[in-house]
Amino acid sequence: MFLIFRGATASRVLRKVKLSSSVRWLTDFCPLASLGWVDAVWDFEFTETGPLDAAIVIKNGSKEFKTLYSHLLPYMTDTEVSPLGTDGSVWTVFGDNGVSVKSLVAVLSYFVLGGKSKTASVQQRISALQASSLYLLLLGIPGSVVNKMFHQILFDTCLNTVSNCWPQSLVKKRKKDTLKSSQADGKRSKPHRKDNDEMDVDEDEEQDEEVHLSPQDLLKIREGVVLLVKSLLRLLLKFPLKDEPQSADNCVQMFAKLTNFEPVIGELSFGAGQTMPELAYYGLWLLCSSNHGDEKVSLRRVFHRVLYVILMMSKGESGKPSLMMATQAVLAAREQAIGFVSHVVDELKEPALPFLRILLQHISFRMVDKTDYRTRGAQAVAKLLAKMPCGDYASFIKWLFDYSRQSKVAYRMFALDVSMALMEQPEREANENVDAELVSFLSHRFLVHNIVFGRRSDASPTVRGHALTCLAQCLELPSMNATRSIKELFSTIFDGNVMLVFSLAKDTMALLKRRVSDPKTNVRKCALQAMMGLLKHNVIMLSEGNLTVLSERTRDPALSVKKKALQCLMDLLTAHPENNLVQKAWLRGVVPAVVDAESSVQEKALECLEQTILSQVKSHGSYSYRDAQQTLTWNLLGLLCDHCQDLGRYFSRAFTVWSKQNKFTAAFINNLISHTEAEHAAGAWLLLSKVASSCPRLDYGKILDAWDDLVRSKNVTVATSCHILCVIGDIGEHLNEDTKTTNIQINPSNSLPNFLMWTVLANQNLNYALQTFLNQHCGELVSVCEAYLSGVILNENGAQNLNEDLVVKHLYTLGVASLHCPSKVGKRIVLLVQSVLTSSHSAPKITGSRTLHPSCLPPGKLCLQHEELTRKYLPAFARELELCSELAVRSNVVVVMCDLCVRYTNMVDRYVPNVSACLRDKEPLIRKQTLTMLTNLLQEEFVKWKGSLFFRFIAVLVDSDPTIASLCEYCLVHLLLKKNPVMFSQHFIECIFHFNSYEKHKTYNKFPQAKAKFSLKGAQNKERRFTIYRFLLVHFTDAQRFNITIKISQNILACFVDGELPLDGDGAAVLAETFGILSLKEIKLSALSEAAGAGGDEPQEDEQMAMAKAVMQVAQKKVVSQVQKKVFIESMIPIIINLKSMLEQKRSPVLKDLMGYLQLTMQDYRSEVKEFFAADEQLAVEMEYNLKMYEKEMEAQMAHCSLGGDAASGGTPVSTRPSNGGRSWAPLPLPLPTGSSKRALPRPSPSAPATCSPKDFPSQTGTALSCI
């Protein structure tokens, strides 16, 4: 023992000797630091120091600091030294060498403050870091408290030395990049503009940054920072800060900044490691100890700083936190912060759980509304929630449910992201520690049904769109419980032999279809994604109706929705390549997109077609039914030949584009030819017909042999025949003369196919010889047909042996052949055809119903060649439209008259009302075909908006067939309104009189045409009339809405006031309807309504841009409101007051409609009622009373909704809009009129979806948040 004691004493003596030698340099200048200078430093509390004497220098740079530090370090860990400074302690050494503690502290502060300036040299920065480290070391030596070493301001200054000495150029650059990223995230962002003062400050700061630091300098400064941090860690182990909360806060702030000081290679250790982040987290862990204050306060303090690291924000001493770029370093620091919080919770267990919950709540409330940050924040919440026991986890989920119903959109969005992140983890199972009322919150089913699906009808389009996206993502999760929960929402449940179909499943499916037609682009995209996911995973049936929803959206007005629909169809076809309905829906959606107005959509459609059809054509020898991709290709081609023939013109457009890109190689053609005699012959001929005109040389003999086989065969379809004829037409110019001039026996009953082949050849090679051949043989055909028809019509006994099939063949052949040889058509033929047409009523024995169908076609073809025949037959055609009961006849007559309108516009103009009357035909086919043909004529201006045409056309919007109504809307909005933007506003006032059949106005509704057929008069048609009014108003501009309000006042209301219009029964109905129109929200200026209802399509706007946009909207609303107010006072108020007086005198029921209009209008001018109605005080009093009663009623409704309405809707109530507004889908593009009667047979009009879903025109309190 004596030897050990002597050894320890010797060690202390040796240490004392070294320390004495190392502090001698202090004795060189501490006495030189006058007492006045020292007192001044202490008086200023170390905020500034005066200059020292020039003799006070550090001869060997920082060597003296290092030496003194190394000699003082053992004293910090030596517990045997007396705290009072006796027994050879460091304080004794200082006293023996004449070093005053007060002077020492003042001198150290001089070096610390020397590195504070941004222009400080490298040596000054290093000296500041070493002086700070030395000061912290001295604080940890026993006896420092007695010697009054600690001073809070100097201590905090030493902590700030790290940020002062480390160069800030990288930090500045990071802030600028952060600003750029924030602007890039917002689609409508503008360059950030600073105020002059801010710009001056920034310029001064940049001018101060003059010192250039080399990598070697940065390495030296880093060594100084590490020394300072280690000194602080040693101090925290021995020096409690429980009495210095401000200093503890500063320590936490410094360590939080150092967490992303440098990258960490490998796994991070939360002990005393070597890298700066490891040291920083070790310091934060030490500050969680009760040695530095109450444990709760310490945890709250540390978690508060870690919060910003997790949020990827930079938090300074003051001001709002700024968002940092999501670089690799920032993301790594975020992961380390999450790991540190998990480490604290693992170590402290129960005490840390309440603060973990508070941390998660603050993450939720402070998360920025940017997709990347929200996603990573949700992942952080999910990882930290994994550290909670089941009871606390369930309690937090309950809080999250309340949070998901907050009024702020960003909160509801983040709740959805958190729910998705939680469903990626295994589902929790309840234990005995979980309260019974919290058990339901543990399941994934609760997250799906109550949070994700609960936001399906959110008032914000951004939220409801994101909810639908999350719904689709749930099906891709590995959690079977989440998938099962989705199926519960859409599927039926079997209970024994009884199937219980929940109304929820039906309502859910209906709502999803409405979302596909939502007014907001983003919602429609998300709904398509959800729909595709449900179909892909067989959650809902792969029915024609559900698949049509997807294919319709490829014609959506929005570009992004069309692309999304194409992608969804591709994904669905990949998942279900064998399903016939999916194949049809894919064709219906992708093929028409080839002719889309947007080039990017065309490219996407062509890519899909090439990937699925063109690139999959292999030779017949290599074909195998086991190859799903090849089987799919031929199945699709088979559908194009059969059920989807109407898509042929769009399919041809794709090959026109590909031919320019040289896609058709010789190998591709040979592969096609190898399939022409196999089971896929129809599809092969279809492709050959598209590529023959631009492909290399074909085997002509094989194609002609195929035609001969076709003529002899009875099993080949008409479509395949047409495709072979197309190929023959393309190769006709390469055939020799012997083949072209082969004798053909002309007989329509058995050799019409050969005649068709030669007709095709003639059209492809119209030289003199072939034209002569056609004149000869077509003339023979005309003669044969004339002879046969003469025998049937002119012979008294011709009707006895009548064969209707032969009559039809001869009539149709006569019409076709006459187009190729008009010189062979004589008056006798014209009279024969005319007799067939007129005999439909006088000689039923000769012409049956089948004969009557084509009887009007030959005259139509003849009229295209003879103007006088047109003048003669037009009245007969018009009569057939009115009197004929045969659908096919009326259909063909409409086509003929529209073709004649192209050739003889002025002559047919007077018969346009007869054609437009077919818009009210009893047959949907006639109505649709008439609508299509009139649209084509209006587009090309062969027909003008004269007479009652507009009102007949617009009445189709309320057609009983929703497909026709949707087609009408598309024609009006996307085809005709673009050509004439003012046509809606020009005809609006006359619509009121026309649809009410009111003819007492001196100007409006004075048409000679019959109006009864298109009348919508009466209360039973009121909703249909207002559907038309809303549709027109929705497509008005603000200027048109403003002007139409004035015109309604002058041309309708003023007429009743002046007595021009009598206030009888019909007049009262018109006046009441006028007030109803003025009360529609569609007539309100969009500039006044957008301020309240803006948002939805741009979910990620920068906060500054959102504020600027809101300010602009408020300013715009104020200006427009003032103009509207002035016009309302000057134009409307006098008329309203006089009209009210007149209605009161006559005790008219219309008074109620007038007051209702005023009540809605005056809500925007609630405080100005007396000013508006100064001329009628009684009316002003009534209006104030009505407005008060209305406000009370609305408050009662809101209270009712807050109590019971939210449970039904699953959250914030959805905003409702009239469902009868304009639909947003578009049917297939309309074919242009050709002016030829070759199409005179009843033909399918442009296909439109079978159904059209109408548009869905459409605050809760949360749990109090604890403070961190």
Automatic annotation (TrEMBL):
Keywords: Cell cycle, Cell division, DNA condensation, Mitosis, Nucleus. This is Non-SMC condensin II complex subunit D3. InterPro entries: ARM-like, ARM-type_fold, CND1/NCAPD3, Cnd1_C. It is found in: Nucleus. Residues 889-1051 form the Condensin complex subunit 1 C-terminal domain. It comes from the Eukaryota. GO terms for biological process: cell division; meiotic chromosome condensation; mitotic chromosome condensation. Residues 1212-1222, 1258-1268 have a biased composition (Polar residues). Residues 176-213, 1203-1268 are annotated as: Disordered. GO terms for cellular component: condensed chromosome, centromeric region; condensin complex; nucleus. The lineage of its organism: Eukaryota, Metazoa, Chordata, Craniata, Vertebrata. It comes from Oncorhynchus mykiss. One of its GO terms (molecular function) is histone binding. Residues 197-209 have a biased composition (Acidic residues). Signal peptide: none annotated. The keyword Cell division applies.
